[in-house]
Amino acid sequence: MFHTIMFSGGANYAAAFVGCIRYLEHIGLRHAARRLVGSSAGALIALLTALGLSSDEMRAWSMELAEVHLMNKISLDSALDLYEMCGIDTGEHLLNAVKATLAKYGFADERDPTFKDLAQKTGNDLFVCVLNLSSQQFEYLSVDTTPHMSVALAVRMSMSLPVMFTPVHYNGNVYVDPVLGRNFPYDFPGRTPQTDSGVLGLYVSGTRTNTLKNPHCAFQGFILALMAVVVDQSNNHADKHAFRMVNVEIADCAAKFDVATMAFTWTPEIISHLAKSGYAEAKRVLQDYANPASH
């Protein structure tokens, strides 16, 4: 039985995790994990999991999010923002979308729920991985380390892809997406060789295939292509095989569809394709857990 689930980053492709969650529901392990750990877009999926959303609810949420423009179109003004604020987009739409999600799924009465609020209401511990540029250290935000911090702000920090989004300034420090070294949050607090048997890692790979083919814009495609190489190299150093690992290969989706990755725009067909890929890979890796005697 898994007590911890880790979610890698992957921008839109993190929708594949909806299929993974669906398979966990199928084998009766959906609510076994009480610790949810995420980096970048994976932090958002980890939050949905912590809130208790079913795979069907996650799918519906994905479709709702597809109608929201989380990132402004790149223009001359955004180029000036890059120079003045170190990012093309302020991330305001993204932050508001996360707050709206919290309000819809259990926190309508709380103005800006904290990690402590989330833990007390759900019984789940959310760990959000971020990169503190000021200290040049990767950090995990949680009820243990930052109990009074806004959950929405933490997720916004973790999704602050350098250049694309402005960094977040918090308590005198500057925070960005941990994509450059912890796109997969494998070194979360409390993880030991003795506990790895209860850890499940969900990861998407193959994201670099389509970054320069029909990109949302030439500049965005260029940045994403560079990031993809860095992410692949950094993940090679992660000890991902000491625990159970579901590695969803999404290169076929990247090749088949023109996914506007950083604009967070996709279609029902794309979401369905990604979810099916996630379900199939989770079933392949976790089929032994389908036998009640194994868990």
From TrEMBL:
Entry's EC annotation: 3.1.1.-
Chloroplast listed as a keyword: no
GO biological process: lipid catabolic process
Motif (GXSXG) on chain: 38-42
Pfam families, per the entry: Patatin
InterPro entries recorded: Acyl_Trfase/lysoPLipase, Lipid_Hydrolase, PNPLA_dom
Top enzyme class: hydrolase
Residue intervals of the PNPLA domain: 5-190
Record keyword Hydrolase present: yes
Record-level Gene Ontology MF annotations: hydrolase activity
Active site: S40 (nucleophile), D177 (proton acceptor)
Function: Lipolytic acyl hydrolase (LAH).
Family the UniProt entry places it in: Belongs to the patatin family.
PANTHER family: ANNEXIN, PNPLA DOMAIN-CONTAINING PROTEIN
Notes concerning its domains: The nitrogen atoms of the two glycine residues in the GGXR motif define the oxyanion hole, and stabilize the oxyanion that forms during the nucleophilic attack by the catalytic serine during substrate cleavage.
The name this protein goes by in its record: Patatin
Species the sequence originates in: Tetrabaena socialis
